[in-house]
């Protein structure tokens, strides 16, 4: 599905009810590339990063992705492939860790978790005011850019998405088996939108 950026921006909506249809693996691969893919020979990526530190780490919780077993996967640096972390369906646990137990987390065919190494940028930008906080600000800006790229590419693939930022950080990190200093920043639920009235 080829659409312009203007069309993707106009068509982007939060989708919280998903069809049973599986996401094609090539569509997921394009979405992951949009979020963190290498975009040139110089090592730059699709999402801007302060001092090119690239502290973001993406995890994919696949439930209904054609060609991908159910489970949790880590995206290798520079978007070069998925590595299995856990073979279980962790959506119910992620739903329990979210504020208000939003049912769309448990029903989404796929969830991309945007996580970040919070320590590296804190050290790299420790000399910038406000003291100790500038690195975190850069991380949040980068995560927002990655989330927007995910949502716009999802539109281009005919998929809907919704971003979830309300969750217990420690519980979510536990579900995703995140080693310190990684912290979860956002969850993006993806899938084909259910027909209206279903």
TrEMBL record:
Listed InterPro entries: Bacteriocin_Proc_Enz (IPR052544), Nitroreductase (IPR029479), Nitroreductase-like (IPR000415)
Domain Nitroreductase: 10-191
Gene Ontology MF term list: oxidoreductase activity
Domain of life, source organism: Bacteria
Cited PANTHER family: NITROREDUCTASE MJ1384-RELATED
Protein name from the UniProt record: SagB/ThcOx family dehydrogenase
Protein's organism: Martelella lutilitoris
């Amino acid at each position: 599905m080829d659409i312009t950026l203007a069309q993707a921006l106009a068509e982007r909506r939060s989708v919280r009810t998903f069809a049973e249809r599986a996401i094609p693996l090539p569509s997921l691969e394009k979405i992951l590339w949009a979020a963190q893919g290498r975009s040139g020979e110089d090592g730059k990526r699709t999402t801007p990063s302060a001092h090119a530190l690239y502290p973001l780490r993406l995890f994919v919780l696949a439930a209904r992705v054609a060609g991908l077993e159910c489970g949790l996967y880590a995206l290798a640096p520079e978007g070069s492939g998925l590595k299995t972390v856990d073979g279980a369906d962790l959506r119910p646990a992620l739903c329990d860790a979210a504020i208000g137990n939003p049912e769309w987390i448990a029903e989404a065919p796929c969830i991309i978790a945007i996580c970040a190494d919070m320590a590296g940028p804190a050290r790299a930008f420790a000399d910038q005011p406000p003291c100790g906080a500038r690195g975190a600000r850069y991380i949040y800006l980068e995560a927002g850019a990655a989330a927007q790229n995910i949502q716009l590419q999802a539109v281009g693939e005919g998929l809907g998405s919704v971003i979830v930022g309300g969750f217990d950080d420690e519980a979510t990190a536990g579900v995703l088996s995140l080693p310190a200093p990684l912290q979860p920043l956002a969850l993006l639920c993806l899938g084909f939108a259910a027909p209206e009235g279903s």
